[in-house]
Design a protein that fits this description.
It is a single chain. The chain is of the alpha/beta class. The protein has one domain: Rossmann fold (3-Layer(aba) Sandwich). Strands 1, 2, 3, 4, 5 and 6 form a 6-stranded mixed beta sheet that branches.
Length: 228
């Protein structure tokens, strides 16, 4: 009886693993079907208290997507064209039809990014830096959401520390941590966190990210669209 129960458990685990794999694949199902060759990155919506957050994030998106095999329109040129078209506010851009935005540039898809958190919390001997971003890619023809993901990143200024040498070493370590925390609070290094968030959200495939594009050098490439 115990042997039968063991076989049943193994079968059950295998079924669950298969279901999890299917869920993972289905997240990119629409994206694979649309097979976009180009991605238009529009201005970032900023819901955080840091007024510079949107520009920081916008500056980190083009390179990873380009290296992932997609044609990416220059973000500064995109911003200028949108402003000339009366879309100077990022929230207004995000609420506009994807097909309208894409038609201005001949893009296959549009990437929308929203900053929900971008702050540093000072706690005497430690500063915790938080970055939370929402990503969404819409199809240029149908306006449908092809892929979306939420990514949160946390950095603690005293990570990896470790004192030694008795009481004197402990006091010295505490002083170093306090100085490090103060520096991090004064000049929090958000860009590495934003880059890490982009990598985990966009490039982690198979997983949460999008598949490599048609211009990627990896073995896994999307087939070119046949309607062009």
């Amino acid at each position: 009886m115990s042997r039968i129960a063991g076989l049943f458990l193994i079968t059950f685990v295998m079924v669950l693993s298969g279901c999890a794999h299917q869920v993972e694949l289905s997240k990119q199902e629409k994206f694979l079907a649309a097979a976009p060759r180009s991605i238009l990155i529009v201005p970032v919506v900023n819901n955080s208290v840091d007024v510079a957050a949107a520009e920081y994030v916008l500056s980190t998106l083009s390179i990873p997507l380009g290296e992932h095999g997609y044609y990416v329109f220059p973000v500064n040129m995109v911003k200028r064209v949108l402003e000339d078209d009366g879309l100077a506010d990022a929230s207004l851009v995000h609420s506009s039809p994807t097909s309208k935005l894409a038609a201005l540039f001949g893009a296959d898809s549009v990437l929308y990014v929203t900053v929900n958190q971008w702050n540093a919390k000072y706690m005497l001997l430690n500063t915790q830096v938080n970055v939370a971003l929402d990503y969404r890619i819409n199809d240029a023809k149908t306006d449908d959401i092809l892929w979306s993901h939420h990514q949160n990143m946390i950095y603690n200024s005293n990570q990896g520390g470790g004192g030694g040498g008795g009481l004197g070493g402990l006091i010295a370590q505490l002083i170093v941590e306090a100085i490090h925390a103060a520096i991090t609070k004064g000049v929090p290094n958000y860009l590495p966190l934003a880059n890490q968030a982009n990598t985990l959200a966009l490039l982690s495939y198979p997983g949460n990210g999008i598949p490599p594009g048609p211009y990627a050098t990896e073995e896994k490439e999307l087939s070119p669209r046949t309607d062009k």
